[in-house]
């Protein structure tokens, strides 16, 4: 862990689900901590596995930029720094395997969530089950936001997408990845909560860590000036690369082993504690490390 220096400019990357928000509900205290850190001259970016298509403007407008689709897309200062998609042949092979195995899935892109017509009802059942289990507020930015982004294309094999969400599968996500072959990696899904029948299929060579490094270079900051906070397996790369890493209580051991400090979950306002401990909320004239 880099020794905290409140007067040094930092760039902070926050995972969304389970870190900044709990089941899509952002605590007012977290929103205020982000606002104060930015007012003090620090850059704060959302760094999420979600695609832009299901991120509400009320959420994204609170940040200096967005690393979305688990590092596949980076938006900052009104510019798109990268937008990685499945290569066409890999995309076709992936859809073929998903269809052959009777999977309920979404192909995630910045502008839409593509799904087969046959899978919409299964997807709705899974989302409604999650909402009932979590008692989520229906006006929050939660999994039901997927509904508005759902699109049923004529040919799923021709879609351009960055990541796949598997919501209900007769076979495990690791087995699906093995059947697809080289180019994808399986990960648990932090939203669906059912590791036996759900998960994510990401590009094997894309990670949140790539987005962190790209943004730091763009801002003229070193990795030692980066701060990452996350709770899921798709946060491991981010936590491993950032100068200071924040883990969330109750996260898997593989996540917490990379954490320099561990704070409570969103409902206990853990990020406020982290920001206070790192001096991000202190009013001070910042030293700009780009100078």
UniProtKB/TrEMBL annotation:
Query: Is Hydrolase included in the keywords of this UniProt record?
Result: yes
What InterPro entries does UniProt report for this protein, alphabetically?
HAD-like_sf (IPR036412), HAD_sf (IPR023214)
Q: Does the keyword Glycoprotein apply?
A: no
Q: Which UniProt keywords apply?
A: Hydrolase
* Pfam annotation, one family: Hydrolase_3
Gene Ontology terms, MF aspect:
hydrolase activity
Q: What is this protein called?
A: Cof-type HAD-IIB family hydrolase
Q: Give the organism the record lists.
A: Brachybacterium huguangmaarense
């Amino acid at each position: 862990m880099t020794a905290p220096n409140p007067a040094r400019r930092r760039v902070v990357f926050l995972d969304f689900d389970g870190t900044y928000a709990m089941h899509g509900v952002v605590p007012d205290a977290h929103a205020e901590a982000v606002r104060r850190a930015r007012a003090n001259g620090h850059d704060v970016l959302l760094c999420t596995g979600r695609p832009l298509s299901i991120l509400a403007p009320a959420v994204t407008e609170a940040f200096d930029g967005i690393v979305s689709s688990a590092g596949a897309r980076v938006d900052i200062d009104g510019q798109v720094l990268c937008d990685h998609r499945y290569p066409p042949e890999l995309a076709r092979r992936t859809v073929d395997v998903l269809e052959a195995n009777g999977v309920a899935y979404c192909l995630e892109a910045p502008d839409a969530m593509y799904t087969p017509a046959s899978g919409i009802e299964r997807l709705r059942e899974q989302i409604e089950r999650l909402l009932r289990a979590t008692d989520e507020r229906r006006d929050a930015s939660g999994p039901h936001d997927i509904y508005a982004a759902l699109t049923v294309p004529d040919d799923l094999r021709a879609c351009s997408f960055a990541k796949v969400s598997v919501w209900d599968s007769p076979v495990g996500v690791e087995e699906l990845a093995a059947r697809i072959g080289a180019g994808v990696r399986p990960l648990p899904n932090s939203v669906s909560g059912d590791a036996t029948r759900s998960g994510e299929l990401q590009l094997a060579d894309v990670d949140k860590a790539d987005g962190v490094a790209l943004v730091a270079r763009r801002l003229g900051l070193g990795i030692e000036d980066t701060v990452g906070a996350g709770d899921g397996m798709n946060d491991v790369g981010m936590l491993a690369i950032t100068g200071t890493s924040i883990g969330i209580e109750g996260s898997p051991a593989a996540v917490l082993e990379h954490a320099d400090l561990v704070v409570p979950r969103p409902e206990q306002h853990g990020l406020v504690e982290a920001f206070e401990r790192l001096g991000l909320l202190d009013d001070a004239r910042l030293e700009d490390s780009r100078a």
